[in-house]
Design a protein that fits this description.
Layout (H helix, E strand, L loop, with lengths): L2 H24 L7 H13 L5 H35 L3 H25 L5 H4 L1 H6 L4 H25 L1 H7 L1
Helix pairs in contact: 1-2, 1-3, 2-7, 2-8, 3-7, 4-7
């Protein structure tokens, strides 16, 4: 896909495209790194007639939806799903255990803080589901962390769009 084709799609589908990308990114699908995508969304919004505030609100909603999918799978599927997805990977299991202990020690605040750490921010839904964190806690604390992360990165791209585009 060329840049011209992408911009045509963006102008045609705008927020639908952005919401889909954010949903996939929070489901931790490969190829969607937030450190690149979120500022790019800000640049695209700045170059269009779309609202920054509407985009930020939708980014939190769709980030939360993507996180809820993983949380739900782990909440209701638990250990059998972990076994099928990650097998006997000792490194991943150790990582999930560390997340589990951190979330238990700090409760919801730990979840919100994890949402601000690259890589961990999307994977933290797994231990939250496995420990069966109450859904209202998960939604509230995740929304707080997701809002902080998305606002920082999308706003960066938005407010520095001219500078970013001049470097290309």
């Amino acid at each position: 896909m060329t840049a011209e084709q992408f911009f045509t799609l963006f102008h045609q589908y705008g927020l639908i495209l952005i919401c889909t990308v954010i949903f996939c990114e929070y489901m931790n699908l490969p190829g969607f790194p937030a450190g690149i995508i979120m500022p790019c969304i800000g640049v695209l919004i700045a170059q269009s007639e779309l609202s920054l505030l509407v985009t930020l609100a939708l980014s939190v909603c769709f980030g939360l939806l993507g996180s809820l999918v993983i949380y739900g799978l782990c909440y209701w599927g638990g250990e059998p799903i972990m076994q099928r997805l990650f097998g006997k990977s000792k490194n991943f299991r150790a990582f999930v255990e560390r997340c589990h202990h951190y979330i238990n020690a700090h409760r919801g605040r730990g979840l919100a803080l994890c949402r601000l750490i690259p890589v961990l921010r999307t994977i933290v839904s797994i231990p939250a589901g496995l420990i069966r964190m109450p859904v209202q806690w998960f939604i509230g604390w995740s929304a707080l962390g997701i809002a902080a992360w998305n606002t920082a990165l999308i706003s960066f791209g938005y407010f520095f769009s001219e500078k970013i585009l001049s470097m290309l």
